[in-house]
Write a structure and sequence with these properties.
By secondary structure, the protein is an alpha/beta fold. It is 36% helix and 14% strand. Helix 1 packs across helix 8. The radius of gyration is 26 Å and the shape is elongated. The model has no long low-confidence stretch (mean pLDDT 94).
Length: 414
């Protein structure tokens, strides 16, 4: 069984901004050929490294983001390299480009020229701020995008009582901005491929990372637009216009759980019954709280939160969240990443996969499918390409002879 993009060829000219999108396309079955400069892409220098040995083929970053792709080396800025690149573009369905802005245009490969080379080409361009506008030439990285896009304003710790902060905003996760943009670029690419089935024509998709990130905050933007009300970032929970009760509580075994008020119909009664069965209901079973009018407002929310905290503190992490979930209460443990590897839910969803590294004689656990289509599969390998690993295969298919390839290699064009 193949992925649903099994007949799609993707040419990737990407750094850390675009490699996640290429990984998704490869996962869905596309044949993704990553073009790197001779010696390898700059992202091969991003650590950590296998056994702490810095090497172009040992970057764990590169392994993760280039899983399932093939790789060739090519100096696209040389005259011969540009000509080889043109041949590859002509045979591709998708060109994924996150190189510095206008790199291909400066090589004589602007969008009109690309259309002439391949009228059916889907050209996906990821840039920091877009191909137009007063910020088009500004520089940025993942952290800058998360700050400008609003994610960091919403993530951090509780404010002081006066609403001011003595802690800084924090970034939710490394490369988060590129994941947001990569997901949007992936979906747009699939849409363009479907559209091409009708029109027969390719198209260019401009994905400014700043724009992609800015439309992926939560309620803070509409609250400001409609109410001129700012949202407060709060420890371990969503930014809201008012500071609510805590939701992360320590458990008996020194771990933490996410414990929320049950929002579902009959939720309050279910939670209180659960507390009572555990001998931890406090005064919540008193007649006073049978009246919903006495369960309103911040004061009650804080009191309810205190009772939850006492209950959670009396049990181990796994015991308390599973007990809650068995009654339909949306509680969850806060796990370390490795604790998820053996979880039966993750295994059933093929979230992790084992990947061979024949050059090392070992297998490693990788993150696999982000989604599990019903009638097709998600790619399970191979591991990321070594530097120039598929030069001969790919260039032979372009009609480049072994002698020509040796000549190009000798002049460090490949």
């Amino acid at each position: 069984m193949q992925g649903f993009l099994f007949d799609v060829k993707v040419l990737e000219l990407a750094d850390e901004k675009g490699e996640f999108c290429g990984k998704l396309l490869a996962g869905a079955g596309a044949d993704v050929i990553k073009v790197e400069p001779p010696g390898g892409n700059s992202t091969r220098s991003l650590g950590p490294f296998y056994q702490d040995e810095p090497h172009a083929d040992r970057s764990l970053y590169f392994w993760h983001y280039n899983f399932g792709k093939r790789g060739v080396t090519l100096d696209i800025r040389s005259t011969e390299g540009t000509e080889v690149l043109k041949k590859m573009i002509a045979q591709s369905d998708v060109l994924l480009d996150s190189l510095p802005l206008d790199t291909l245009a400066k090589l004589g490969l602007d969008w009109p020229t690309l259309q002439q080379l391949n009228p059916r080409l889907i050209y996906v361009v990821l840039t920091p701020f877009g191909r137009s506008g007063p910020w088009r030439d500004y520089k940025a990285n993942d952290l800058v995008h998360l700050a400008l896009g609003g994610q960091m304003m919403c993530c951090g710790y509780n404010p002081k009582e006066d609403g001011s902060y003595d802690t800084p905003p924090i970034a939710p996760q490394m490369w988060h901005a590129y994941h947001i943009a990569g997901n949007q670029a992936f979906l747009a690419t699939v849409g363009a491929l479907i559209g091409r089935e009708t029109t027969g024509q390719g198209e260019m998709i401009d994905v400014p990372i700043h724009q992609a990130v800015s439309v992926c905050t939560e309620i803070d933007v509409p609250y400001w637009i409609y109410n001129q009300t700012a949202c407060y970032r709060q420890t371990g929970r969503h930014a809201q216009p008012a500071v609510g009760p805590e939701v992360q509580f320590p458990t008996k075994d020194g771990r933490y759980s996410i414990i929320l008020a049950n929002p579902f119909p009959g939720g309050y009664e279910t939670v209180v019954k659960f507390f009572d069965e555990k001998g931890q209901a406090g005064d919540l079973t008193n007649e006073k709280y049978q009246d919903p009018n006495n369960r309103k407002g911040l004061a009650f929310a804080l009191h309810f939160s205190d009772v939850q905290a006492d209950c959670v503190a009396a049990f181990d992490m796994e015991e308390i969240w599973r007990g809650g979930q068995n009654l339909g209460i949306p509680w969850a443990p806060i796990r370390t990443p490795e604790e998820n590897l053996q979880d039966k839910q993750w295994q059933a969803r093929a979230t992790f996969t084992e990947v061979e590294h024949p050059e090392l004689g070992q297998r490693f656990s990788y993150i696999g499918a982000p989604m599990l289509p019903n009638e097709v599969t998600w790619r399970q390998g191979p591991r990321a390409p070594l530097v120039g690993e598929h030069n001969e295969d790919v260039y032979e298919q372009l009609g480049i002879s072994q002698d020509e390839l040796a000549n190009l290699r000798g002049r460090r064009i490949v």
